[in-house]
Amino acid sequence: MRAIKVILNDMMHIIRLSNTSDNFTILIHHFLFWKSITSRFTTFLNYVIKRVFKVSYLATSKRREHKKMETTTEKKPYGTVLIRAKDILDYLEYRVDPVSLQEICTALNTSKSTVLKILNTLCSIDFVKREEETKKYTLGTALIRYGETARKSFNIVNVAEAVLEELNDTIGETVHLGIYEQDHVVYVKKLNGKGQIILSSQVGHTLPLYCSAMGKAYLAEQSEKDVRDYLSRITIEKRTENTITDPEKLIQDLQEVKQRGYAIDNQENEKDIYCIAVVIKRNGKIEGMMSVSAPRFRITEEKKQKMITSILEARQKIESKLNG
Hints:
With 324 residues, the chain is α+β, with helices and mostly antiparallel strands. It contains eleven helices and eight strands. It has three domains: 2-75; 80-142, Arc Repressor Mutant, subunit A (Orthogonal Bundle); 154-323, GAF domain (Beta-Lactamase), CATH 3.30.450.40. Strand 6 (263-266) and strand 7 (273-282) form a beta hairpin. One of its GO terms (molecular function) is DNA binding.
């Protein structure tokens, strides 16, 4: 607007000169007038262009920023803190002795400030316990209550409990009840053997399918395609000298398990431990697995046959209750 006003003032000045000055003077002022217009128009045009591009750039930047925020929001997982808390609980689950803050941070590759905040919260709700003297952490008592409630919610545990106790008394060895969960066996019930040797297994612990008796009993009931799919998505570790690591030999072993009706883990999962297991079905579908385990040095042929006969009878009793 200021440039336009200046141009109009120059035009009025030339008009006044045309009435009072000679032709040469008028010509000079015409020249200066159009030069002024050209200069001011160029300045005005540059101003307009800058304003337009500035607005366009800001609008584009805002759109990019908004899009970036949307992308970031979409990729960010919901409940990240919960996932990290679960990682901490999972780590503590397999630690017999209390562990320090530094050990947890190193194992989870997470900063101390983040882990400490989560631990403080978990301690406040009794999911984790902090020892005041050592400043180390263990699982808290609240998990026992939740675990007991979850265990009772499994119908198979309630139904099988009396039969498992009877089997435990008959054999005098450790009895386990497990379920399948995410390519593993999860212990949901354990009855210790009557001898002085107590197996280290605990309710809630998991076992690989490929090298445990309960796991092999489960796999033997699956199709060969499903077994091969399972083997393709896991890493087979040689946990002992007897672990079967060749997929073809394992599939052959599973076929034998299917034919005889029970699985054997002869020190394949843990050295010096012998185990026999069967699946438990309800209406033709696997509800869980049951096993009898003992130190290898106590296994004679007579003991082995007694274990097989007793566990098969126990399975029949449990399945009768489940299907009744």
